[in-house]
Design brief:
The complex is a heterodimer. By secondary structure, chain A is an all-beta fold. Chain A has no helices and eleven strands. Chain B is built from no helices and twelve strands. In chain B, a hairpin with a 4-residue loop joins strand 7 and strand 8. The model of chain B has no long low-confidence stretch (mean pLDDT 95). Classes of the chains: A mainly beta, B mainly beta.
Chain lengths: 108, 127
Amino acid sequence: EIVLTQSPATLSLSPGERATLSCRASQSVSSYLAWYQQKPGQAPRLLIYDASNRATGIPARFSGSGSGTDFTLTISSLEPEDFAVYYCQQRSNWGSLTFGGGTKVEIK
Amino acid sequence: QVQLQESGPGLVKPSETLSLTCTVSGGSVSSGSYYWSWIRQPPGKGLEWIGYIYYSGSTNYNPSLKSRVTISVDTSKNQFSLKLSSVTAADTAVYYCARVPARYDSSGYYPSLMDVWGQGTTVTVSS
């Protein structure tokens, strides 16, 4: 089973700052990685798929990069509505799906 | 646009079976373009994938839950359902249903990501 490890667990930043979130896979997942944003009391929302493609309606300040085992979600300049929890997710060769443990981006 | 809505009891007794239904509107569970998935989130914790079903009826479950999970689809009602047996307090969570686009490569069709989510329903396991 592929394990996704997200770091840091919590990121304390101010609006306007750049956020860099990491997701590391225990073995290669090629580019089969997605990122989600979840705000309190809401369902997750798809941000990035195939490691670097923004989903429909996602602002350009969100970008994803990486392949193999190391992936990054970057928010170029934090807006007040970006403070939330972010999850990465992959699919394995045998079809199972896995989420990382999440990174909380909080206001400093 | 497609919308998903979970429904079912909010309270289940220990050792009983949790049953939830996801109703799909604006789209069809019979579409070969999608898998249909269940995900859960215990209070204050992260997301856990439970399993998914394809319109053909083929399923795939999280190995940690496989012995207790059944996901089925009812094309006549445009719904898919989750049954989780022998529940304990550890199964207390918000349960989400989600749509999973089917992608294709040389190995065939495979699930990818969750692009549309229901709002979630809270299930508490308690006597």
